[in-house]
Amino acid sequence: MTERPILALTIGDPAGIGPEISLKSLAEPFAYAEARPFLVGSAKVLELAQQQSGTHLKFNIVNELSQCKFEFGTVDILDIDNIDMAALQMGVVQAQCGQAAFEYIRMAVDLANQHKIDAIVTAPINKEALKAAHVPYIGHTEMIADLQHAESVMTMFLIEKVKIFFLTRHVPLIEACRQCGDKDFVLAGIRRAYRALQSFHADSPKLAVAGLNPHSGEGGLLGREEIEAIRPAVQEAAADGLNVVGPVPADSVFHFARKGQYDAVLSLYHDQGHIASKMMDFERTVSITIGLPTLRTSVDHGTAFDIAGKGIASAVSMVEAVRAAITYAGVYQPV
Question: Which cofactor does it need (predicted)?
């Protein structure tokens, strides 16, 4: 990609820290030196966020991308005026905020589907607010996948030099364990993760598959999923030429990856990989959704209602999400 990529930053739930960290991320000169970013959200909400956070940015409120300036010091805002400011309560679950957050995302996806932008960077939304608004999605990944007609997607975390893929995401732990007992399901996840890993690595990357049970099942004494599904899936993938090993006990696999023994880890369920990444560096963990037609990066934290509106939210994760979008916009492939 020779031109600076165009990045649409959705501001997330208006009652959370999303508007604040979105503004703070664009108070960094690198974003304009290396990209053409703009915000998708309510200009009134962002005006409030600016007052609360103490940023001193000029606003260029636009109705279409051709009106954007993409100049450091001036934030372009594709304005969606969908919040009753008199009723807005910071740090509180509200249906209007869940609906508004959905509309920001839908606008960004519409632009992506028209090939007008190169990546979407998302600030946090609130699942309870989505439910209160009767938005029929549990989160960003499911929402954008449906709006982009993506049949199968996978989450990948970037943390330090480690990449973590997730075989399962937002399902109950008992259901994740059931799915991990299906060899074909595990094999499909390995293959998808490895294809994505290859797109980020010029050489032959090495993928480790985490174990599910303590000590990877201890030869069947602590569970049979490794014997009946996970190890056979790894062996079949390796026989097909993939540089993959496992199952490696989950209490050590992330440590070995951090030391450089593996390029990536396939985590089998939500908290297995989330806990590891957040222990490495909570603020700098970035999420990328694999399988979408358009690159989507995101913070890996919530709306932080406890500090919303106080102007003290750290924008480090949002800054890192913008950096990741810049880095991968030219190489991302919807594997």
Answer: a divalent metal cation
